[in-house]
Design a protein that fits this description.
The complex is a heterodimer of chains A (about 110) and B (about 110). With about 110 residues, chain A is mostly beta strands. Helix content of chain A is about 0%, strand content about 55%. In chain A, the strands form two sheets. In chain A, strands 2, 4, 5, 9, 10 and 11 form a six-stranded mixed β-sheet that branches. A five-stranded antiparallel β-sheet of chain A has the order 1-3-8-7-6, with no helix packed on it. Chain A starts with a strand and ends with a strand. In chain B, the strands form two sheets. In chain B, strands 2, 4, 5, 6, 9, 10 and 11 form a seven-stranded mixed β-sheet that branches. In chain B, strand 7 and strand 8 form a beta hairpin. Chain B starts with a strand and ends with a strand. Chains A and B meet through strand 5 and strand 10 of A and strand 10 of B.
Chain lengths: ~110, ~110
């Protein structure tokens, strides 16, 4: 079982819609979760992190964490074409090894 | 601005010819990581340095080595690159094993 799993997509949404990206993790000891955005040919850049159950909002981005279900998601409201990228979910396990999911490819259609 | 720098951004080498990739950082972070990322795959941790302590992932091939001469610099040496080693190599840093990692722009390696 992979440490962090994501639906690879591709996910396509029209401009202005809400994009929903999902991630599950296997290590119940993981305490923090990160969403990175990676444009093609570029390195990952951190856009959100969450430690506590519930929602965390930052501008158009909302991260949601449910530790009981071992599930973390990222919502992007008012999606823009510039949001088109691969979104990587990441979590350190109890040994502080950092695991990335394979990423979900998002395309926002103008 | 504090940052993570990787050189070169693009590297072409021949099959079996040793190559070295470099990473430097001005964040003064004590942990530095090397990841390999192949197309449409997740970044895969190769190894990391916690201060001067080297930590190799169990499945990292012996062909990959690393050096960290000081806090700011870390090198990735590929002793005999194979075609399967063509990938993007990402350097990242963190403070202690703090969960947030900061990535450099990556070096794309091509093996001919």
């Amino acid at each position: 079982q992979k440490e962090v799993e994501q639906n690879s997509g591709p996910l396509s949404v029209p401009e202005g819609a809400i994009a929903s990206l999902n991630c599950t993790y296997s290590d119940r000891g993981s305490q923090s979760f990160f969403w990175y955005r990676q444009y093609s040919g570029k390195s990952p850049e951190l856009i959100m992190f969450i430690y506590s159950n519930g929602d965390k909002e930052d501008g158009r981005f909302t991260a949601q964490l449910n530790k009981a279900s071992q599930y973390v998601s990222l919502l992007i409201r008012d999606s823009q074409p510039s949001d088109s990228a691969t979104y990587l979910c990441a979590a350190p396990n109890t040994g502080n090894q950092f695991y990335f999911g394979t990423g979900t490819s998002l395309t926002v259609i103008p | 601005d504090a940052m993570v720098i990787q050189n070169p951004r693009y590297q072409v080498t021949q099959f079996g010819k040793p190559v070295t990739l470099s990473c430097s950082q001005t964040l003064n972070h004590n942990v530095m990581y090397w990841y390999q990322q192949k197309s449409s795959q997740a970044p895969k941790l190769l190894f990391h340095y916690y201060d001067k302590d080297f930590n190799n992932e169990a499945d990292t091939p012996d062909n990959f080595q690393s050096r960290r001469p000081n806090t700011s610099f870390c090198f990735l040496d590929i002793r005999s690159p194979g075609l399967g080693d063509a990938a993007m190599y990402l350097c990242a840093t963190s403070r202690d094993h703090g969960p947030e990692q900061f990535f450099g722009p990556g070096t794309r390696l091509t093996v001919l």
